[in-house]
Amino acid sequence: MPYDFDLFVIGGGSGGVRCARIAAGHLADKAGGKVGIAEGRFWGGTCVNIGCVPKKLMVQAAEYGAFAQDAVGFGWSETAPTHDWAALIATKDREIGRLNEIYVRLLQNAGVEIFEAYARFVDAHTLDVGGRIVTAKTIVIATGGKPVRPSIPGAELGIVSDDAFYLPKLPRRVAIVGGGYIAVEFAGIFRGLGAEVDLILRQPLPLRGFDHDLRTGLAEALADQGVRLHPNLSPAEIQAFGDVRRVVLSNGAAIETDLVFFATGRAAATEKLGLEQIGVRTAANGAVIVDGDFASSQPHIFAVGDVSNRLNLTPVAIAEGHHLADRLFGPGAPRSWSFEAVPTAVFSTPPIATVGLSEAEAAERGDADVYLTRFTPMRHTISGRVRKSLMKLIVDQATDRVLGVHMLGEDAPEMMQAMGIALTAGATKRDFDRTIGIHPTAAEEFVTMRSKTRSAGG
User: Fold this and answer.
1) What confidence tens digit (pLDDT) does each residue in 170-224 have?
2) DSSP class of residue 252?
3) DSSP string spanning 374-388?
4) Would you say the pTM of this structure is higher than 0.85?
5) Which CATH number is 344-456's, of 3.90.550.10, 3.40.50.1860, 3.30.390.30, 3.40.50.1000?
6) Is 439 one of the catalytic residues?
7) Looking at 125, 230, 406, 439, which residue is catalytic?
8) 20 to 30 Å CA-CA from 48: which of 2, 218, 306, 382?
């Protein structure tokens, strides 16, 4: 039977837009074929609107206050800068609006038909898109994820990450619940902008799953900034007393605050799609279960990005969407990406960046050598700020191949992109050792660590 679209993408985030745009280009080259895409909230998805882009702008806003303080050590006159939260939010909103327009323009230029509406399945090849019924031969689900609240009394009295970007004013006191990316990043943002911050985390250290040395170093750095850490605890109840919020903890203690911020995980945004009625299997958190080719249990329905809950990073969603479009509609074999060594960053204060295996993961696979250095960055020997950088290499003893690179410290994300290239190319410790460093930089430490700190595994 003829279909209205060769491909229809549900979701206008980074992965969905890339998939639709690349597919439309391939179909145009074949002199035929239509691509449609539906987005009911905002173009660019979580990352552009209520995620990594505005969050990093807010991280940078917080850093400027520290820069002003640090400048005194370099001879600048002492000042007491004040921050205008409303001005920051207005500037952020203008930038996000500009990015939204770019996404729409990219789709239009590629010839994709745009639907500014939510879509749901009527049957396996039919969609209701804002009241319009359309059919598609192939469908891609790219609806991303959403934050979840804990199931405790008073949870409705707190906010989630989506809400943080639209707060009308900076709260004087913030209690953040969680120990992952979002929790530690917003702890740095709010503290850097002048708020008192309590960080409540179930684990003994933040960032479960990251290398232990990085986790320890970040906990120390947060404490040095004045963030009050409450490890091994969970909220049991949130109470309201006028504008004041009271967080009752699992040990019976309580924290009074002006804002409770839940950063307690995310779930796939699939509950309104009608997947159960068309036989698309999902996990307990709503994620679409896919195979290695991004196909769901219905072979013509695919899922890319956070909605499949595999590696929830924007560049990964983009790569998955591009790869899928190439494979379905492109000429020849699709381009390939390395998903084995994906570099990632946490824009905490200071930031963390990592690629490859942690020390614990490497030890499970065999014997590994660990190279580790901690130091005060040059600028802070002058500024007087208490801040340490940490850099770490994990090296396979049998092959000399570098298995993991980890850093806590300023500019770590910028450096780690190059480390991702090195690990993807299979670089060895000898390759690192024979690379000339740039002096004076922190980055040169990666190629000057000669003395093994310890061995792991065995």
Assistant:
1) 999 999 999 999 999 999 999 999 999 999 999 999 999 999 999 999 999 999 9
2) S
3) EE--HHHHHH-----
4) yes
5) 3.30.390.30
6) yes
7) 439
8) 218
